[in-house]
Amino acid sequence: MKLKNKKEIPVFFASDKNYVPYLTIAIKSLANKISNKYMYKIYILTNDLKDEDISEIKQCEKTNLKVDIVDVNEKIESIKNKVALRDYYSVSIYFRLFIPSMFPQYDKAIYLDSDIVLNDDIANLYNVDIGLNYLGAVLDEVVYSNKDFVYYTREALDVTEKQYFNSGVLIMNLKKFRKNNIEDDFYKWVNSYNFGAVAPDQDYLNVTCKNSVKYLKPGWNKMPMGKCLEDKDLYLIHYNMFMKPWKYENLMFEEYFWDIAKTTSFYDKIKQTQASYTQEQKDADRIGGENLIKLALNIANSDNNYKTIVLKKGKTHNAVSTKELEEDILDDLLSMVSLPCAIKTNHRR
Fold it and tell me: Fold for domain 3-343?
């Protein structure tokens, strides 16, 4: 089949200089699984990468796979008067929201975080029919596995754990995003209401796209936690939050990451990063996990949240005390997210 007749699969990543080694692994894993039936177009959204930064990624290019760097600095400049950036999250969280307006030639696209490894052809994800929904996405495993996050999504966002998805792997209905001006709506959302959010872009997508999401099989966004999946059901591994193989040993599904890492020039550097990851840094992860839960509970208990301010709905539960849940925080979230000994696996391919 000639290239011009091949169906195009547009895939977007967002990254900065610090994430180049892991982005390289993600894209190499994608390139290893592609089919000759399609043309794959990989876009890297960034505000600081240069061609030399991704020279190794460029080596993944094939006749039917091309990689483009997309500088979003001009876009960022254009929105500075539209949105006030807050200290607790980076401008990079906006990047996936730029895709519909920056790429009007596409009606549908895939967005992927850079801390992933593909174990299946990404075309199989793209080809999922999401109908008239805004998104195709997977329920957030960190959220539905933790009662404190469940409390947060219900009480702060009016979204249940059976609806709240992770935004690191998305099939995006770009046509519908443009039609309903979702990007501009986000700027208004951030500027008009002074309420807190644990993950501003992900929370926004969840409240905006609620009841317009095609929920995908868990294997398309499987985190190294919870129930293990057979290899045939494991399509994409997402090393989310603190669950990074370049930080911790003995993580579930780490072998998929290292198999690809060994084929890159970054392998020794990444192994050194893991070996030099100090107890102080691990303790900081623990504290970060604690603080994330406390922030979630404080927002959920507050009258200053999306559910109360925008939806004008009252609370359906009694307020939960962060003090009385202190032990739950340590036993639940931290063991689940940041302690590698708690997420070891006997999984083997």
Answer: Spore Coat Polysaccharide Biosynthesis Protein SpsA; Chain A (3.90.550)
